[in-house]
Amino acid sequence: MAILTWAAAPVSFLLTLFIGRFVLAELRKLKAGQEIREDGPKWHAGKAGTPTMGGIMFILGAGVVVFLLGWGQMLQGEFAHLYVYLFSLCFGLIGFVDDYRKVRQHQNEGLTAKQKFLLQLLAAVVFLCLMRYEGLLTNDLYVPFLQVSFTVNWVVYLIFAAFVIVGAVNAVNLTDGIDGLAASVTFVVMVFFTVTALLWHMTTLALFPAALAGGLAAFFVYNHHPAKVFMGDTGSLFLGGAVAALGFAMDMPLILIPVGIIYIAETMSDIIQVAYFKATHGKRFFKMAPLHHHLELSGWSENKLVGVFSGMTAAFCVLAYLGVLGRY
Question: What 3-state class would DSSP assign to 223?
Fold first, then answer.
């Protein structure tokens, strides 16, 4: 099985690269162009019309690999990799509906915030209940670095988990604001989950992050600056679901703090901006939120942002691994 996991990344890369050519052509035919925020950086106006919903590429690529290479494990009754993929797909479908409405209405607004929240919360609750029913989720909260865990009441744990998942999904979504950023950062996170799962002998579960890492590498070919296609909410919500689901499927949700340091920084910058704006009656703490836009307006290029944010993620992933070394 470990051999299949190592094969998942290159197979998914080639498959996603192939699928991408057709997806990109179809999106252009459908005129599924991205609407750009009017209050965004002025130079982003040139990106208007770039095809969106490109996340379909790696969703399909990773999905095919998960089913084909994981077929033997499913015949043996092991479905962890499939559950995580299907859970991520639920969020991808929510994003697809959002993107489709934006494209049809030709504006940068799709589902309302309330609609997104309720759909995401429902998906999280269903996933958590399924994982608990299958015996793949415990209510023991493991604390990295301290190497301790403590049991939490099941109801309290499920409420905590549902809101962590929704928060993580939307944090990843916020990170998708410039060419290649969400794809590159999440690629590093998927490598972390793949390596950790393999070293912990969770070979079935490792198949999904390995396949997604390969898919994201292929998507980056189309999405690096200047992007030929954007992943849209279709892709970013799928990625958010993947990151959150893997944290819980591997029974270490608190590890999402270090591995998701960029997602957290992006989210906190948005929260600080809104709170400061309201408290000071119109003043801004950052030039623009989330953080990547502030750095853009401070003179950082998109390529520099992608390199620095991915490098920081890699460093914190190494730190996170050191924090869980003593678990198994």
Answer: helix
